[in-house]
Specification:
Shape: elongated
Strand order of the largest sheet: 17-16-13-14-15-12-18
Radius of gyration: 23 Å
Number of helices: 10
Structural class: alpha+beta
Number of strands: 20
Strand content: 15-25%
CATH architecture of the largest domain: 3-Layer(bba) Sandwich
Distance between the termini: 14 Å
Order of helices and strands: EHEHEHHEEHEEEEEEEEEEHEHHHEEEEH
CATH topology of the largest domain: FAD/NAD(P)-binding domain
CATH class of the largest domain: Alpha Beta
């Protein structure tokens, strides 16, 4: 009989395992893939952006996360506990090696290979006279850490629905955007530093400065991915190609025929095309370039999925309010954050909280 079976061997599952083992618990991690930690290796283009110095509830999709963020210091203690030194670059926290492989190797070492079973797809959790049965394995507690269908993952929130839990339908966020291509043809591969806004009518849903990457069918880059968290029906993108320059100053360059002194030639052509179409001055379009028909790319291109089990149905230890002995953490819960380490931070933090509690 195990004290806890942990379903999913990602960041949250491995963190939960480490904390439970430290408390002397007998645990087993079940992972559907051939190896644990696949998404840890992908995070931050392999550099594994673990967390961020600028954590706040505003960086997440639900205010309910505030109850847990107050324990964020435990994440940094956890890194020290497993022997992981970190470094901070522009507020983003990375392993000092800047390698996801280092993170995963230290986590696996802390858990121990004997406590991990791979290629274990879980289709049902059964209630026993004492505790639960997961793939025929008896346990007092279950911690669900299966993540989501983002990238190569799978949605396993249904495992808890039989116990009275509800789940928000998943949708891709932190994902490139597909858009109309009428005014961006020829821009594929071009990077530009802009102020990007997501708007619906006169209402601004998101507005930040950063770098975007034009693609054949839309826009990508960290800024576009952050913007994807704020999409609503009938919204559009507005780009200011000159966020540090006033429209009046831009007009001086345009009148002199020196628009290319402000932005790349291909962007000049795109702006001039839109200005002619809407019969607007070029300088005005440089400050308010519009792209319509916005939608997120598929889950296979998303870093995170919004949705999953409702956080409000779990207590301060992330134990189910519906069925004692069931826990959930990581992305299987309806918590998602912006780019920059916020989602991995939540994975580690929630895993630590659940692992300490079983």
């Amino acid at each position: 009989m195990y004290d806890a079976v942990i379903i999913g061997g990602g960041a949250s599952g491995l963190a939960a395992a480490v904390k439970a083992l430290k408390n002397g618990k007998k645990i087993l991690v079940l992972e559907a893939e051939k190896r644990v930690g696949k998404k840890i290796l992908l995070a931050g283009n392999g550099r594994c952006n673990l967390s961020n110095k600028h954590l706040s509830v505003d960086c997440y999709n639900t205010p309910s996360v505030a109850e847990f963020l107050k324990y964020s210091g435990e994440v940094y203690d956890f890194f020290e506990e497993i022997g992981l030194k970190t470094r901070t670059l522009d507020g983003r926290i990375y392993p000092y090696s800047e390698s996801g492989k280092s993170v995963l190797n230290l986590l696996r070492e802390a858990v121990g290979e004997s406590n991990i079973l791979t290629e274990q797809t879980v289709k049902e959790i059964s209630v026993e006279e004492e505790g639960f049965s997961v793939n025929g394995i008896k346990t007092n507690n279950v911690i669900l850490c299966t993540g989501s269908s983002a990238t190569t993952g799978r949605d396993c929130a249904d495992l808890y629905k039989k116990f009275g839990h509800t789940a928000q339908k998943p949708s891709p966020v932190l994902v490139p955007l597909t858009t109309s291509t009428e005014f961006i043809k020829g821009l594929s591969g071009i990077r530009a530093k802009v102020r990007l806004s997501v708007k619906t009518g006169e209402k601004t849903l998101f507005s930040e400065c950063g770098e975007i990457l034009f693609k054949d069918n839309g826009v990508s880059g960290i800024l576009a991915m952050d913007a994807s968290r704020f999409l609503e029906k009938d919204c559009f993108l507005q780009m200011d190609f000159l966020p540090d320059i006033a429209e009046t100053e831009a007009a001086r360059y345009v009148k002199r025929g020196k628009t290319e002194g402000l932005v790349q030639r291909m962007i000049v052509l795109a702006v001039e095309k839109q200005a002619a179409y809407y019969d607007l001055p070029v300088e005005k379009v440089l400050k308010k370039f519009i792209i319509k028909n916005i939608s997120p790319c598929s889950a296979s291109q998303a870093q995170v999925m919004r949705g999953g089990l409702r956080l409000e149905e779990f207590d301060e230890n992330l134990q189910s309010k519906r069925k004692k002995g069931l826990y959930a953490c990581g992305e299987v819960l309806n918590v998602d954050g912006r780019c920059g380490g916020y989602n991995l931070h939540w994975a580690f933090l929630s895993g630590i909280i659940a692992g300490k509690s079983v």
